[in-house]
Amino acid sequence: MPNPRRPIPQPAQQPTLTLFAIGMVGLGILALLYRDFALVWQPVPAWVPARAAIAVATGVLMLLCGLGLLLRPTAKLSAQILFPYLIAWALLKLPDLLTAPLVEGSWLGFGELAMLLAGGWTLFARLAPVSPASPLAFATGNRGVRLARILFALWVIPVGLSHFVYVDGTAGFIPAWIPFHRFFAYLTGAGHIASGLG
Fold first, then answer.
1. Residue 189: which residues within 8 A CB-CB, separation 6 or more?
2. 3-state SS class at 19
3. Among 2, 62, 119, 198, which residue's beta carbon has the most beta carbons within 10 A?
């Protein structure tokens, strides 16, 4: 349960909540525009039945939940929906990590989803308190926020490492007008790793 001496900020007071919500809205819009899963959810095999319809449904869910996080009356429900949704996506990526543990791309793919899950978990912990008797009680309040922070810290490290392994790909994301692309690719990778260790 949340610490009664430490009030939990409401959604409108949290700039990080707004940024997370905008990210969810953006991923939802991408899924709707392309009728495909946004990049972080890939690869979803072409043989999956009703693949395009499922992609659109996930886009609608992310769009609505992202918008819902921005409104006080719907923020709690949105956090309650997003948390298991993000858990499910992370679990779907786990087989790739287990079958190709020596491929940095597997760690990167799972790490990206784990970082999103950490954000969704933090919102769930802050906005959706549950009964102390609930099996999810450990995931809420200050303890839930701390566990989410640990999850983020662990998985931001392999994401940073990918900047070194795939330095040319990372450098390709840097706008052409910025010099020293490889330097900034290494710098951002080191920043990710340092933030995880910190």
1. 160, 161, 162, 163, 164, 167, 170
2. helix
3. 62
Residue 129's alpha-carbon distances to 120, 140, 194, in angstroms, are 14, 6, 32
Contact 148, 122 (CB under 8 A): yes
In a domain, 2, yes or no: no
The tens-digit pLDDT sequence of the chain (198 residues) is: 445 445 544 444 578 889 999 999 999 999 899 888 877 667 777 788 888 899 899 999 999 999 999 998 999 999 999 999 999 989 988 888 899 889 888 899 899 999 999 999 999 999 887 878 888 888 898 999 999 999 999 999 999 999 999 999 889 988 989 999 999 999 999 999 999 999
In a domain, 4, yes or no: no
Number of domains in the chain: 1
Predicted TM-score of the model (pTM)? 0.85
Tokens 């954000």 -> residue = 119
Question: Is residue 6 assigned to a domain?
Answer: no
Q: Which two tokens stand for residue 66?
A: 């992202």
